[in-house]
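Hello again, I could really use a second opinion on something today. I owe you a coffee for this, so here goes:
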Amino acid sequence: MFDKILIANRGEIACRIISAARRMGIATVAVYSDADEEALHTGLADEAVRIGPPPAQESYLATGKIISACKNTGAQAVHPGYGFLAEQAGFARALEENGIVFIGPNPAAIALMGDKIQSKKLALAAGVAAVPGFPEAIEDVRQAAEAARALGYPVIVKAAAGGGGRGMRVVSASEQLAADFARAQSEAKSAFGDGRVFLEKFIAHPRHIEIQLLADKHGNVVHLGERECSIQRRHQKVIEEAPSPFLDEATRHKMGEQAVALAKMANYDSAGTAEFIVAADKSFYFLEMNTRLQVEHPVTELITGIDIVEQMIRSAAGERLRLSQEQIALNGWAIESRILAEDPERGFLPSTGRLTAYRPPAGVRERGAKLRIDSGVREGSEISLHYDSLLAKLISHAPHRAEAIEAQAQALGEFVIEGVATNLDFLAAAMASKRFRAGELSTGFIEEEWPHGFMAPQPQGETARLFAAVAAAAAYAEIERQHSISGQMRPWRKVNAAYPRSICLGKERYDVMIEGLSKGMAVRFENEGDNYLCISDWAPGQPVWKGASGGKEIAVKLRRTLNGYHLAYGGAAAEARIYTRREADLIALMPQKTAGLGSRVLRSPMPALVKSILVNAGEPVKKGEELCVIEAMKMETVLRAESDATVEAINAKPGDTIAADAIIIRFS
C-alpha cells in the first residue's frame, strides 16, 4: 500500500479523496492554483504545493507540474478525481514513465473506453446496443452537416474526450449546426485539452441510467447496481439517486451483465461507469463509459456500504477485489443534490463571489434517514469563474425512497449559503414536484416542469398562510428582543390583549393577531379564523426559522428586508411585508412603479472571460444575431442581440475578464 498520494484536483472531490486516504493511514499532498491558495482542500491535506496561475491549462491540466510536485514531495501515486486530467491516457502514461502510480484504470483502457468514439465501436463489437451515430471524429462543419443529414435532426454534438456536459450541444435544425459545432469544439478543447467531437442521433426524453463498475488488475469485475441521473440541465446532472425508481430486477441484471462484459473486453481495472439511455419500454442503449470516479458516486456508496475511493486506491496498489457479485446488496435509497453556484432564475447562469455564509444542515434525520455532505468550500471561500460551479453535494439515505426525498427536502430547507446565487430553491422545488416524487423522470424533466424557465413560485393556500405565520412569529420575536433590551413594557402580554399586524405576501394581505403564550405564540388569521401555534427557539439574526407552525415541523429560511423578511420553504419564495393595519391600508393606495425602457447596451450576465467578439463597430445587427461568446466555470455562453440595432462601440476584447453587468457593446 502507498505511504503518500497526491490529489491532482480541487474542491469537494479533493476533500473526499483526502478523507478516504486518511482513514486508510495514507498521507496526502494537495495541489493548488493561485485562485485556490486559501481553498479548503489545501488545509485538509498533509502538504500543499502551488502549481501555477488560475487558468486550468497552466495549473490543474499541467502534467509536468503535477509530476514535479510528486517528485518533490515523495508522493508514490496520484488520484485525479474527476474532470481535469482524470480521463487523459497521456497523463497516466507520463506518470508510469516517471515511476508514479495512477489511481485509475490502465492507460490503454482509458484510451479505449475514455474515448467516446472508440468505446462505441467496442460496445458494438461486444453486442451491446448503442445509440445511432457517426462513429468517427468530425473534422469540420461540412462533414458534420453530411452526418447530421444522414442521421436526421435533432442530433447531438459531443466531445470525444471528457464528460460532465462540456463540449455537448443539441442541434435541432441545420441553421444551428455551424455555431453549435464551434461551441462544442471550443469547450472540449478548453475543458479536456482535446477538441475532437462526434455526432449521435439525439433521443429526446429518455432516462439516463448508469452502472457503477469496480475492477482490479487480476481480471475481476463487479457492478454495484445502477444510478438514475435523468434530471439534468445543459446535459449536466443535477439530482441523482440509487437505485433507479424505474428499473426492475431483470433489467438491472441485464444492464449490469453487459457493463461487466464490456469492462472485461476492455481489460478494465479500477472504478468506472457505463452510461445508458433507457426508453419507456426498458430497452437500453450504451452511451459511453466514464473511466473515472463519478461526481454522483456517494449514492452508490450509501446503498452498498462500499467506499469506491478506497477500492480505487487498493486496485491501483495491486490488491485483488475482496467482493464477489453475490456479496453485493442494495440497501435502502439514496438521493444526491448538486448544490451549485448558479442562478436558476437567470437560465442557470454561473455565479461568482465570496461566501458570506455557509451553514450546512445537521446530519441526523428522523425515521432512520441520515445525511452526508461532501463539500469543498467553507464560509469565506472565494468562488472563482475559472472552475466548476459545484459547491457541495447533499446526499440523503433512508430505508425507502419517500423517506430519502423527505430528508433531502428538509435538509435543503436548512442549508444556508449567501454571497453567491445558488440552486437551493430550485432543488427544493424539484423535491416538492409531484412528478419527481412519483419517479416519473426523463432527461427533459427540467424543461417540461418549467418550460418558461425556473422561477421560485409564490406560496399559495396553506403554504402562504404558513409563510405569514412564520413572518408574524419572527416579527414578534424581534419586538420581544427590542423591548427586552430597552426594558419597555410588553402591552400585548396583558390578559386578553393581542398584537395586531398585517402581513403582505405579494398581492395577498393577511390580517393577524399575535398573542404570546407561555410556550411559543398564537397567530390568528382574522379573516379566516385559522389559528397557528408557532413554537421555535429562533432568535433574531438566525438565517433559518426552525420549529413547529400549525402542527407541522418546518425549517423556513428567512432574511431581513425592509419592513419584513424574504422567506423560502419547499421551493417557494416570497417577500413578507409586515405593517400596522393603517400602514397596510395606505400602502394599498400607492401607485405601482413600472419598468423603464431597457438601455441600448449589451451587458455581461455574469463575471466571465471574453472568448470572442463576433461583430464590429458600425455594423448593423438583427434580433437574435450572435454578438459575442463568454466563458465562466468552463461553460461557454453566446450573447445575442435582443433587437435590431447598429453597433456603436465595443468595450471589451477577447481575453478580457469582465464583471457581471459590465458593458460589452453599445448600440446606437
Observations:
- Residues 491-497 have pLDDT under 50 and may be disordered.
- The domain at 4-103 is CATH 3.40.50.20 (Rossmann fold).
- The CA atoms of residues 26 and 217 lie 21 Å apart.
